[in-house]
Amino acid sequence: MVNADHGGRPAEGFGATATGGVRTRLRVVRLGLWLIAALLAARQVTVVLATPRGERLTDLETWVGPNGVLHVNGSLYDSTRFTGTPFGGLALKPLTRSAEQALGWGWTFGTLLLVVALGLTAARALPQPVSRRTALVAAPVAISLLMLSLPVRNTLWLGQTSIIPVLLVLLGCFAAHGQRTSGLLIGVAAALQPTLLLFTPLLWFTGRRRAALATGVTFAACTGLAWAAMPHDSYRYWVHHMAGVGLGGPADDLANQSLHGALLRLGLNGPLEVALFLSLGAAVAVLALRRAVRYFRDGQLLLAVAITGCAALVVSPTAWQHQLLWVLLAVPGRVGRRASDRYVWPVTVVLVMTLPAKMILPDMASLTSLRDNVVVLAALAAATAVPFLSRTSPYYRSPLPVAYAPAVPARWRHVPLVPALRRVLTRPNLLLELLLLRVTYAAYSKVRLAATGGSNSAGRAEAEEHGRQIHDLERALRLDIEHWVNHTVVGIDWLRDFFDHYYTSFHFVVPLAVLAVLYGRRPGDYRWARSALGFATLLALVGFWLYPLAPPRLMPTLGFIDTVHGTQDFTQPDYGTLTALTNQYAAMPSLHFGWALWCGLVIAVLAQRWWTKALGLLHPLCTACAIVATANHWVLDAAGGALVVAVGFGLTHLLQGPRARTVTAAAEVSSGSSDLRKDRTPS
């Protein structure tokens, strides 16, 4: 299973026609990617080493520290703190004599080097054919993704050893010379993480039988050595704990992303759960091995290894967060016939492996089971279900192209159009859109809250000072109508109820409805409108960060009435369930008005009937009245919202070109795509 035939050596050069400009740009891009990887690595190391002792490398301290389990006279498994195999404990024993500070620095930088080696090995293992461009940028991209991933961050923070088995397997599969050396490396990895013995049948059924035998012999030798050196510990691990079951914490903990943990979280337990776990685990292992063998013979060795590793995670009794790197290695698998679908799988995997589950899926009761098991579901999908394309498929290298509107010249010569924002006429992938929408909103919410130091009280003084500045400016401009409007509306019950309901109910509903209609009926305009909304929201976040502003209802001495939340005790304010989760000082610019204005403009531009256009423009007018009447915004906040929306549309026009308005062009492109699809249908 040596990498000589299937390594990442570029199969295509630039050729004699490649220009020096292309080479220069590629060098600059590659240098930039390596710089990003270096910065991410430096940041991770800084975060770990800047953390006080006792809070960093806690697992390593638990093992080899002065009071660690490797110092005790009894069994390593008298408590559940040590989760490794007896062979792992035997390998760590020499470290117990190291000085704590030296061990911390050495362990952190050693782990960093292992991550770099893992990224380089994975980059070299990409299936042929690989373009020179991909080969040059693959290594820094792989290392950057590893640095961002939760398993690597968790490993660095805790001082875990879980990167070592993954690296040993990859070295055995792609770097070792000779099957015996390959089996030796994989056997040692299995001695550290027993479920990696699943690679033995993969080696056997792919014709690497010497490597398979060497793996089994090495595993038996390492385990036997540990048994001879620590018989009591080995008995406790292999017999009493049944290969580590129950070590490291409760098996139903959210951190245990294995099939066993998922079944326990679903409420199953006892003999029924054990029987179901064993039967499903066996089915997953068999199906995953069949798929891995098929992709191995297809020349996609890295994908075959990733599928087997994902299966090992699923069937393991416990798979803690620092052991989940196998899922990330499945990123290179290609899924989908259309070019627009190619990003769904890699983006999903990267998001699952780099972001907490609560950022990917909303906190809804109906999604709790899915959110709690998102990583094991990704591993299960990679191992058994995702239809990765074969290299023999005509769509593997040449997917169905994306339909673009005719090219247009840039607005200004020194500001070129951005290729990623080209005027696409086809409908984007719905799953990818929903996933990115959810993650973007979660990031938006976190940035809003972080703008005041993570809490509303942290930025109160500055926000109130800015509120006084805005109030004085409005008085100078004779725009200070908020107090009069607020008290007038409070005196009219039905009008107060109307504006309260409008303020709380339509902020998200209308923009989502507009996006949904555009996605279904006007896909070309959907991308145009979505880009403008994204730019406007990004600019608003900058405003929230630079200028936290207290809205009228949070100005203690001005006499405004909070019609939505009632009269406030400013020493202990209560804004409902969002009191601690939302930045109450994210008022300038007003995205309530900004998003409403975006909706109104999009409807006015795209709607065909005059009354639909009028209704669309009525929405921002009602929103402006609502935000002032409920004392949630100043008039100038609405002006700020209008400004960011205008700049958002302007940036879209500048970087993307004018909106694609020609239905004829879209129809022609769609027809051409249909003809192309017919021509390329496999016989």
UniProtKB/TrEMBL annotation:
Residues 468-650 form the Inositolphosphotransferase Aur1/Ipt1 domain. InterPro entries: Aur1/Ipt1 (IPR026841), GT87 (IPR018584), IPC_Synthase-Related (IPR052185). Keywords: Cell membrane, Membrane, Transferase, Transmembrane, Transmembrane helix. It is a multi-pass membrane protein. Pfam families: GT87, PAP2_3. It comes from the Bacteria. Belongs to the glycosyltransferase 87 family. This is Inositolphosphotransferase Aur1/Ipt1 domain-containing protein. It comes from Streptomyces hawaiiensis.
